[in-house]
Every structure is written in structure tokens, then in C-alpha cells.
Write a structure and sequence with these properties.
The protein is of the alpha/beta class. The chain has one domain: TIM Barrel. Helix content is about 45%, strand content about 15%. The protein contains 11 helices and 8 strands. An 8-stranded parallel beta barrel has the order 1-2-3-4-5-6-7-8, surrounded by 6 helices. The radius of gyration is 16 Å and the shape is globular.
């Protein structure tokens, strides 16, 4: 089955570098430095989330520094507009948010809508998602991705929630297009401390685990 989804270039690029670092921290001392530390460890996609207070200036600074930046936990059209105005490359939602999808389409950028059940996946497709984020991925396990690809063969799925160096390769092997690396790579305390060497070390370890398991 071929799904006529928008932004194939986004999926092709993500398939080539299938890890998105998802940052959830009460504060970020230097967003460009954080993204550079992740890139030094091999993770070039970074998602800064609206669960971080006053995240928009961080988005803007990271975009200005030339990093691949997405905005996550986007719940409203207003948040979507703020992120788009900051120059992000993509939007991510934790669940089905039609108004966010509409804002992304209006700006011509990809949106990755969150879903869990087969019905929610179908709704995400109807809303024009570029890929479907399955959350919480760990709760259902890598095998769930293989199950979803039965009725939805070839559907681009992104695993989010509880993904770590020990299970990321399993999600990819069972059909995920990409995985989201959270606290395993970007623990809030390490981010807030600005320990960029540790962030690079964690990113490199995550990517090494993927290569070893491939």
C-alpha cells in the first residue's frame, strides 16, 4: 500500500538519520550549544518541546545557528504559529491536533502527529501527517510496530516514549522509520547543567548501540 503523504523529502532525510533527540528540561542554558553537542555525537535532529518554559527563543537561537530543529508537544495553533515564526523545520504533537496540522500545512512544513490506536493512526493520515508518532512506544513494545504495519504497510512510524539505547534498534527492526531519544540522551539535569561533553557522550553511545545492533 502506498500512502500519499506530504513531505517525502522529510521522511527520506529522517530515514537516513533516524534519531530525533527530544529535549524536556525546565531550562536550557544554551540551545545552540546543546544541538551542537548532540550533532557531535551523531544526532542531528533536535526537538525542543513546549514543555520547556519560554521555549520559543531557544527554538529561534538554534535555528539561527543552522541546526535541524523541530518543535514538540505542540498543542495549539498559537504554539504552532510561534514555532513556525521561529523558523523550525517540523512540528510534533503528542496526540491528534487538527489545528496544529492546519497551521503546519499553511506554512508548508511537515507535522508528525501523535497516535496510538489503529483508529488514531487513520485519523492522523486524514489530517495530512508526514509521519505518525506512536506514543508511548515502550508501553506497547517494538512488536506493536510490526502489528501496525499489517493494516498499514509502509506507513512511516516514529517511536516515542521510553526509547533507549537498549531497545531503539528493535523498534527500527520492527518497522519504525525513526526513534525519539529522550532522557537516555538528554537528561534534564545534564541539560540544565550545560554539560555538553556528557550530552555528546550519551548521543555517541546511543548511535553506537544502533550500529552494533544493525
Amino acid at each position: 500500500m502506498i500512502f500519499d503523504l506530504p513531505h517525502p523529502e522529510f521522511r527520506e532525510a529522517l530515514a537516513a538519520e533516524p534519531v530525533i533527540a527530544v529535549v524536556r528540561a525546565p531550562s536550557i542554558p544554551d540551545a545552540p550549544a546543546l544541538c551542537a553537542a548532540l550533532a557531535a555525537g551523531g544526532i542531528t535532529y533536535t526537538e525542543l518541546t513546549f514543555s520547556t518554559p519560554n521555549v520559543v527563543p531557544h527554538l529561534r537561537a538554534a535555528v539561527a545557528a543552522g541546526h535541524r530543529i523541530g518543535a514538540g508537544t505542540v498543542l495549539t495553533a498559537e504554539q504552532a504559529k510561534d514555532a513556525i515564526d521561529a523558523g523550525v523545520s517540523f512540528l510534533v504533537t503528542p496526540g491528534l491536533r487538527p489545528e496544529v496540522a492546519e497551521a503546519a500545512h499553511g506554512a508548508g512544513i511537515p507535522v508528525v502527529l501523535g497516535a496510538l490506536t489503529p483508529t488514531e493512526v487513520a485519523t492522523a493520515l486524514d489530517l495530512g501527517t508526514a509521519a505518525v508518532k506512536i506514543f508511548p512506544a515502550k508501553a506497547f513494545g517494538p512488536g506493536y510496530f510490526k502489528d501496525l504495519r499489517g493494516p498499514y504497510p509502509g506507513l512511516p512510524l516514529v517511536a516515542s516514549g521510553g526509547v533507549n539505547a537498549g531497545n531503539a534498534a528493535d523498534f527500527l527492526a520492527q518497522g519504525a522509520l525513526a526513534v525519539c531519544a529522550g532522557t537516555d540522551v538528554v537528561p534534564p539535569d545534564v541539560v540544565m547543567a550545560g554539560d555538553w561533553e556528557e550530552i555528546t557522550r550519551r548521543a555517541a553511545a546511543f548511535m553506537a548501540a544502533l550500529r552494533t545492533s544493525a
